[in-house]
Amino acid sequence: MPARVARWVQGHIRDAGLSAGDPLPSQRELSVLLGVSRPSVREGLSMLETLGLVRIEQRRGIFVSSTSDGRPADFWPFEKGYDLRDVYRFRADFEPSALALAVVDARRLAQLEASVQALVNAAAIGDAVAAAEQDTLFHDLLFEACPNRLYRDIRRHLAKVMQDSQWVPMVLVERIGDTAREHAEIVTHLAAGDIPAACAALRNHIRLAALRCDIDLSLGG
Q: Keywords assigned by UniProt (predicted)?
């Protein structure tokens, strides 16, 4: 449901030719219009905020956002909680460790390949919401292949934080193709049965995602 809200609002902005600063329907109006709950509306709008597509102003309303003067990190929603650099540092260690234990069978490999292609398609048309959905699916599939329940539970517990750190770089819509190519490299190594190379490619993907947010993990600090 939240993704449905995000897709509708993104399409409405495009189809209505709206520009930065233009108002959007209220949460109540979206709930009635789309026949979804208010929590689903809030979650969908949160996704759009992280992608830099909308801006929510308390007691004023929802407006089309502009990314022209901002950086991807400016749209990080956890600035009062987790530091974005720390999240990327954690992911660069945690996710390859989970992948090192993964059992990637033919069915899982086909799912990953389909996700990569869908991400390529989304990048080609600049569909940030579809790209974010596929990015989430890709990383979820990798964790589902890990037989260690603790890794999966940690991922589930931190799902929102980790997911938003995946989405923030997509504020740069023109760079979504880079994410697709990085995912494809991981899958290529998995298809060849080279798990260490796949883990290295995953670590590099996270490093490059951080770099798209002007965070250089090689510098430390």
A: DNA-binding, Transcription, Transcription regulation
